[in-house]
Amino acid sequence: MAMSEYRSGVPDDWFVDPVNLGVPGVRQPEVEENPLAWQADSLCAQTDPEAFFPEKGGSTRDAKRICTSCEVKAQCLDYALANDERFGIWGGLSERERRKLRKRAG
Ligand code: SF4
């Protein structure tokens, strides 16, 4: 990735407001319509989001370890691929790993 494309830090619109989502695991019908509804069960929403958007060259190990036990890993990865999310760890994969996956897919 070119340096100019690189953005560090957590995007302002990334983090989920737990108040809007309600109790984890208990979904309201209207939340089901939300393409990001799966984030109600995401482990990263309960941990340090900084780990998921490391500085360039920073370690992604902690984030990936959290993803391993996340219940919505598949939805998370699908969402990231469908929306061409370029930054951060999604579904246990780094930006580079997702790029490779996209290439392989087509
Ligand atoms: S798979 Fe990882 S990045 Fe995705 S929601 Fe779960 S913990 Fe967060």
Description:
Belongs to the WhiB family. It comes from Herbiconiux daphne. This protein is mainly alpha-helical. It has one domain (about 20-25, about 35-105). The protein has five helices and no strands. The longest helix has 11 residues, at about 95-105. It is globular and about 35 Å long. The two termini are about 20 Å apart. The model has no long low-confidence stretch (mean pLDDT about 85). Iron/sulfur cluster (SF4) binds near residues 42, 43, 72, 90 and 91.
Stretches where pLDDT is under 50 for at least 5 consecutive residues are: none
The major sheet is characterized as:
none
- Average pLDDT metric: 83
| SS elements, strand count | 0
Distance between the termini: 19 Å
Structural class: mainly alpha
Bound small-molecule species: iron/sulfur cluster
User: What is the H/E order?
Assistant: HHHHH
Determine Rg (CA atoms, Å).
14 Å
Oligomer: single chain
Strand content: under 5%
**Total domain count:** 1
Tell me roughly what share of residues is in helical segments.
Answer: 25-40%
Binding site for [4Fe-4S] cluster: 44, 67, 70, 76
Function: Acts as a transcriptional regulator. Probably redox-responsive. The apo- but not holo-form probably binds DNA.
InterPro entries: 4FE4S_WBL, Whib
Family: Belongs to the WhiB family.
